Amino acid sequence: RQRQMCIRDRLRLSTLILILLLPLASCKKQPDKELSYEGISFKYPSYWKVKTEKSAGGGAYIDAEEKFSSETIFFVSVSPFETDHEEMLENYFSKLSQDFDVTKEPVASGRFGQYQSSSVKYKMTKNREKAYGIIYAFDTEERTILIIKQSNREYELKHEKYKLMEDSFKVEEPIKDSI
Fold first, then answer.
1. Which residue of 3, 6, 130, 147 has the lowest C-beta tally within 10 Å?
2. Which residues of 7-27 are buried (b: 16+ CB within 10 A; e: fewer)?
3. Of 143, 108, 106, 150, whose CA–CA distance to 129 is shortest?
4. How far apart are CA 78 and CA 86, in angstroms?
5. Three-state SS for 168?
6. Tens digit of each residue's pLDDT (9 = 90 or more) over 126-171
7. What is the pLDDT of residues 42-70, one digit of tens each?
8. According to DSSP H, which parts of 27-106 are helical?
9. Rounded alpha-carbon distances, angstroms, from residue 111 to 108, 134, 146, 161
């Protein structure tokens, strides 16, 4: 009888350990995903959600955000023609300033992945909410690409999730519709 009790206790303990370890087994890192849309491609973490949209004027938008933190975003706007970077950046900040208090650094030359770009670091606030961002603009394949990395935590702008997207970012000639 005592031996039977001991076996039953071990079985319960084994079951309890299995139940406790099961969630850990399912928490392993999921493989990164890859998006290819309108000649733009990049990898992104599997825990992000991505939406794509075409504009009436022939442009395209890619809106990515963390599933659990909608304040952490990666946004891509593709203009179907080349435009002046500084003018494009000023237009963006002009619109942003209508709803937020914005402080920004001067336009700087730099890189976004493999592309030479113009960029601006900024901070926007409204009430007690804050967001930090970097906006990039560059021309390639006869189009202007605008990219926004933004988070409610400034240090996250250097996080691996953004590095993955930036390092894998490619622009190719969009596939033309055939008739």
1. 3
2. eeeeeeeeeeeeeeeeeeeee
3. 150
4. 16
5. helix
6. 998 899 999 999 998 889 999 999 998 888 888 888 999 999 999 9
7. 999 999 999 999 988 889 999 999 887 77
8. 85-96
9. 10, 12, 13, 17
